[in-house]
Predict the structure.
Amino acid sequence: MISQLDFVEIVGVCAPLDDKYITKSAHRFNVPVIAAGTLNGDTMPDNVDIGITAHSFDYIGRKTRYKPKIGWIGYHPSLLPRHRGRSAIEWAVRMKDPITGGTVFWLNSGIDRGDVAYQDWIFIDPTLYAMEPKKAAKRLWEYELQAMGLRLLKQALTDIHAGIIIKKPQVKEYSTFEPNADVKDVYKPDLLMLEQFASTSS
Protein backbone atom coordinates (compact mmCIF):
# COMPACT_ATOMS: atom_id res chain seq x y z
CA MET A 1 0.00 0.00 0.00
CA ILE A 2 2.76 2.48 0.96
CA SER A 3 4.85 1.61 -2.07
CA GLN A 4 1.83 2.47 -4.24
CA LEU A 5 2.02 6.14 -3.23
CA ASP A 6 3.49 7.87 -6.26
CA PHE A 7 5.53 10.32 -4.17
CA VAL A 8 7.25 7.58 -2.13
CA GLU A 9 10.59 6.06 -3.09
CA ILE A 10 11.84 3.26 -0.84
CA VAL A 11 15.63 3.56 -0.67
CA GLY A 12 16.30 0.73 1.77
CA VAL A 13 14.75 -1.73 4.23
CA CYS A 14 16.00 -3.33 7.42
CA ALA A 15 14.89 -6.91 8.07
CA PRO A 16 16.27 -10.39 8.77
CA LEU A 17 18.14 -11.55 5.70
CA ASP A 18 16.08 -14.76 5.57
CA ASP A 19 12.74 -12.94 5.91
CA LYS A 20 10.34 -14.32 3.31
CA TYR A 21 8.21 -11.18 3.08
CA ILE A 22 10.06 -7.87 3.40
CA THR A 23 13.50 -9.07 2.31
CA LYS A 24 12.11 -11.15 -0.54
CA SER A 25 10.05 -8.20 -1.80
CA ALA A 26 13.03 -5.86 -1.50
CA HIS A 27 15.18 -8.17 -3.61
CA ARG A 28 12.41 -8.38 -6.18
CA PHE A 29 12.42 -4.59 -6.63
CA ASN A 30 16.19 -4.15 -6.19
CA VAL A 31 15.85 -2.29 -2.90
CA PRO A 32 18.97 -2.52 -0.65
CA VAL A 33 18.53 -4.64 2.49
CA ILE A 34 20.22 -3.90 5.82
CA ALA A 35 20.39 -6.93 8.12
CA ALA A 36 18.21 -6.66 11.21
CA GLY A 37 20.22 -5.53 14.22
CA THR A 38 22.80 -3.66 12.13
CA LEU A 39 20.90 -0.47 11.29
CA ASN A 40 22.71 2.64 12.50
CA GLY A 41 23.71 6.07 11.29
CA ASP A 42 26.54 4.61 9.21
CA THR A 43 24.64 1.74 7.55
CA MET A 44 21.51 3.78 6.83
CA PRO A 45 21.28 5.23 3.30
CA ASP A 46 22.01 8.94 2.84
CA ASN A 47 19.46 11.52 1.68
CA VAL A 48 16.53 9.89 3.49
CA ASP A 49 13.50 12.10 4.12
CA ILE A 50 11.74 9.90 6.67
CA GLY A 51 12.26 6.57 8.43
CA ILE A 52 9.40 4.17 9.17
CA THR A 53 9.12 1.32 11.65
CA ALA A 54 6.12 -0.97 12.05
CA HIS A 55 5.70 -3.11 15.18
CA SER A 56 9.49 -3.25 15.27
CA PHE A 57 11.54 -4.79 18.08
CA ASP A 58 14.78 -2.99 17.16
CA TYR A 59 15.69 0.17 19.07
CA ILE A 60 16.45 3.14 16.80
CA GLY A 61 19.42 4.99 18.29
CA ARG A 62 19.95 8.74 18.45
CA LYS A 63 22.33 9.01 15.48
CA THR A 64 19.98 6.93 13.33
CA ARG A 65 16.89 8.88 14.43
CA TYR A 66 18.45 12.19 13.45
CA LYS A 67 19.67 11.11 10.03
CA PRO A 68 16.37 11.47 8.09
CA LYS A 69 15.44 15.06 7.27
CA ILE A 70 11.96 14.86 8.80
CA GLY A 71 12.45 12.17 11.43
CA TRP A 72 11.07 8.71 12.12
CA ILE A 73 7.49 7.54 12.49
CA GLY A 74 6.49 4.17 13.88
CA TYR A 75 3.35 2.08 14.11
CA HIS A 76 2.54 0.51 17.48
CA PRO A 77 -0.44 -1.87 17.85
CA SER A 78 -2.04 -0.24 20.86
CA LEU A 79 -3.70 3.01 21.82
CA LEU A 80 -0.60 4.72 23.15
CA PRO A 81 0.25 5.57 25.85
CA ARG A 82 -1.52 2.37 26.96
CA HIS A 83 0.39 -0.91 26.52
CA ARG A 84 3.84 0.35 25.65
CA GLY A 85 6.24 -2.53 25.01
CA ARG A 86 6.70 -5.29 22.46
CA SER A 87 3.79 -7.51 23.60
CA ALA A 88 1.11 -4.82 23.46
CA ILE A 89 -1.55 -6.89 21.69
CA GLU A 90 -1.13 -9.88 23.97
CA TRP A 91 -1.43 -7.74 27.10
CA ALA A 92 -4.61 -6.12 25.78
CA VAL A 93 -6.06 -9.63 25.56
CA ARG A 94 -4.70 -10.74 28.94
CA MET A 95 -6.19 -7.68 30.62
CA LYS A 96 -9.49 -8.17 28.79
CA ASP A 97 -9.49 -4.67 27.33
CA PRO A 98 -12.79 -4.11 25.51
CA ILE A 99 -11.09 -1.74 23.05
CA THR A 100 -7.66 -1.63 21.47
CA GLY A 101 -6.19 -0.01 18.40
CA GLY A 102 -3.09 1.30 16.71
CA THR A 103 -0.93 4.41 16.87
CA VAL A 104 1.43 6.11 14.45
CA PHE A 105 3.86 8.13 16.53
CA TRP A 106 7.15 10.03 16.22
CA LEU A 107 10.14 8.11 17.56
CA ASN A 108 12.19 9.60 20.36
CA SER A 109 14.68 8.26 22.90
CA GLY A 110 11.99 6.44 24.90
CA ILE A 111 10.29 3.15 24.10
CA ASP A 112 6.92 3.91 22.48
CA ARG A 113 6.90 7.36 24.13
CA GLY A 114 7.00 9.74 21.17
CA ASP A 115 4.34 12.24 20.14
CA VAL A 116 1.18 10.76 18.64
CA ALA A 117 0.33 11.49 15.01
CA TYR A 118 -2.62 9.21 14.20
CA GLN A 119 -4.75 6.64 16.02
CA ASP A 120 -7.68 4.35 15.33
CA TRP A 121 -9.50 1.82 17.47
CA ILE A 122 -11.47 -1.42 17.35
CA PHE A 123 -13.56 -3.50 19.74
CA ILE A 124 -11.92 -6.75 20.86
CA ASP A 125 -14.16 -9.75 20.21
CA PRO A 126 -14.86 -11.15 23.71
CA THR A 127 -14.44 -14.71 22.40
CA LEU A 128 -10.70 -13.99 22.07
CA TYR A 129 -10.35 -13.82 25.86
CA ALA A 130 -10.94 -17.59 26.05
CA MET A 131 -8.13 -18.30 23.60
CA GLU A 132 -4.45 -18.71 24.43
CA PRO A 133 -3.30 -15.05 24.57
CA LYS A 134 -0.54 -15.43 22.00
CA LYS A 135 -2.94 -16.99 19.48
CA ALA A 136 -5.55 -14.33 20.16
CA ALA A 137 -2.93 -11.60 19.66
CA LYS A 138 -1.86 -13.16 16.37
CA ARG A 139 -5.45 -13.18 15.17
CA LEU A 140 -5.97 -9.53 16.16
CA TRP A 141 -2.80 -8.56 14.31
CA GLU A 142 -3.58 -10.50 11.14
CA TYR A 143 -7.28 -9.64 10.90
CA GLU A 144 -7.42 -6.10 12.29
CA LEU A 145 -4.30 -4.27 13.44
CA GLN A 146 -1.96 -4.98 10.54
CA ALA A 147 -4.34 -3.44 7.99
CA MET A 148 -4.99 -0.57 10.39
CA GLY A 149 -1.26 0.15 10.55
CA LEU A 150 -0.95 0.29 6.77
CA ARG A 151 -3.91 2.64 6.57
CA LEU A 152 -2.58 4.97 9.28
CA LEU A 153 0.93 5.02 7.81
CA LYS A 154 -0.48 5.84 4.38
CA GLN A 155 -2.47 8.70 5.91
CA ALA A 156 0.61 9.94 7.76
CA LEU A 157 2.82 9.92 4.67
CA THR A 158 0.15 11.60 2.55
CA ASP A 159 -0.27 14.39 5.09
CA ILE A 160 3.48 14.83 5.63
CA HIS A 161 3.94 15.09 1.87
CA ALA A 162 1.32 17.88 1.92
CA GLY A 163 3.18 19.68 4.70
CA ILE A 164 0.84 18.59 7.49
CA ILE A 165 2.78 17.51 10.59
CA ILE A 166 0.76 16.30 13.58
CA LYS A 167 2.46 15.81 16.96
CA LYS A 168 0.42 15.36 20.12
CA PRO A 169 2.29 14.57 23.35
CA GLN A 170 1.25 11.34 25.03
CA VAL A 171 -0.66 11.75 28.30
CA LYS A 172 1.72 10.11 30.75
CA GLU A 173 -0.96 9.73 33.43
CA TYR A 174 -2.61 7.05 31.28
CA SER A 175 0.57 5.22 30.31
CA THR A 176 1.23 1.54 30.98
CA PHE A 177 4.23 -0.61 30.13
CA GLU A 178 4.15 -4.39 30.26
CA PRO A 179 7.06 -6.84 29.86
CA ASN A 180 7.84 -9.03 26.89
CA ALA A 181 5.38 -11.92 26.93
CA ASP A 182 7.99 -14.23 25.37
CA VAL A 183 10.03 -14.26 28.60
CA LYS A 184 9.51 -17.61 30.32
CA ASP A 185 8.22 -16.29 33.66
CA VAL A 186 6.54 -13.16 32.33
CA TYR A 187 3.02 -13.98 33.50
CA LYS A 188 2.69 -12.15 36.77
CA PRO A 189 -0.82 -12.02 38.24
CA ASP A 190 0.02 -8.82 40.12
CA LEU A 191 0.00 -6.94 36.80
CA LEU A 192 -3.62 -7.94 36.28
CA MET A 193 -4.44 -7.16 39.91
CA LEU A 194 -3.03 -3.65 39.53
CA GLU A 195 -5.08 -3.20 36.37
CA GLN A 196 -8.26 -4.30 38.13
CA PHE A 197 -7.50 -1.99 41.06
CA ALA A 198 -7.03 0.96 38.72
CA SER A 199 -10.34 0.19 37.03
CA THR A 200 -12.31 -0.02 40.26
CA SER A 201 -10.64 3.10 41.69
CA SER A 202 -11.41 5.34 38.74
User: Anything to note?
Assistant: The first helix runs from residue 22 to 28.
